[in-house]
Q: What sequence folds into this?
């Protein structure tokens, strides 16, 4: 009998409590990136994405992630971040900045809003000013910058690794 | 002075030795996924991707990742995997199978070939038969499956977390 046999479409893991990870996204240039983020977020058990700008999911990319995710639309990021802080979330930006922490060693708070910037500009200064922490992901080679959805996926993975049961 | 100020396009980290992580990819349906994988691999310091089928990078997506990555073309995956084993690599598939290990707790060998399946079929039985181990990534919600590039990114992140200096 083969040692490794396909076991696709098995039942997902169960969380002992709902995920308290929220994503907060700057206006994106590309619905593709937002949709990739949404699909990964759905798989990670995330149920809330705070969007800004014209946020629209492509169901061919996001699949049915949107079924369990509430996509909140806000006009701009800073007031949405203040709202999230008021709700008790620690605001953690994903960016290359001064005083940033290495994602490899960063200890996430359970209630975390992961704040993701635009593909080109990253997080603007007025969004950075609202943050409690910034994490960055080590880069060792060309092209010296992760795609925004790739970086978000890595950060979500790290959060879920720290809180596998929710 | 603001606490967090942009520090984009800083110098990358240096590895104390070349990355001994190689990617080995089944024929992909989409050059987009392969190109996303290549961009992330480049940033992670990976220098070699073993491709099968008609593998072509889209430079708009992969950026200049290809400058430091050798893209090897092979016709099919199993002989390429045997070649990699012969070179000393541990063959680790990314798939949902019986006897798979949780990526969160998997301890990578330094010389690892991460073996990635096709978007639809995943890894075929003849590829699975060559593997030393299979890792899978926990899924907690819809759509119950990560995109292939997303899953590859998570596994590369985990490898780099374990070997930050190469």
A:
């Amino acid at each position: 009998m083969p040692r490794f046999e396909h076991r696709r479409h098995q039942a997902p893991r169960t969380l002992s409590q709902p995920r308290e990870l929220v994503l907060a996204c700057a206006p994106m240039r590309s619905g593709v990136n937002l949709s990739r983020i949404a699909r990964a977020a759905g798989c990670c058990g995330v149920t809330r994405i705070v969007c800004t700008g014209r946020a629209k999911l492509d169901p061919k990319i996001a699949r049915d992630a949107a079924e369990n995710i509430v996509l909140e639309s806000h006009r701009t990021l800073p007031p949405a971040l203040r709202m999230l802080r008021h709700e008790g979330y620690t605001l953690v930006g994903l960016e290359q900045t001064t005083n940033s922490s290495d994602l490899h060693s960063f200890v996430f708070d359970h209630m975390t809003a992961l704040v993701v910037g635009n593909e080109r500009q990253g997080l603007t200064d007025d969004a950075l000013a609202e943050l409690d922490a910034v994490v960055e992901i080590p880069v060792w080679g060309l092209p010296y910058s992760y795609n925004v959805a790739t970086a978000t996926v890595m950060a979500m993975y790290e959060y879920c690794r720290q809180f596998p049961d929710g």
About this structure: Chain B has a mean pLDDT of 95. Helices of chain B lie at 31-43, 59-62, 77-86, 125-128, 148-162. The longest helix of chain B spans residues 148-162. The two ends of chain B are 36 Å apart (CA to CA).
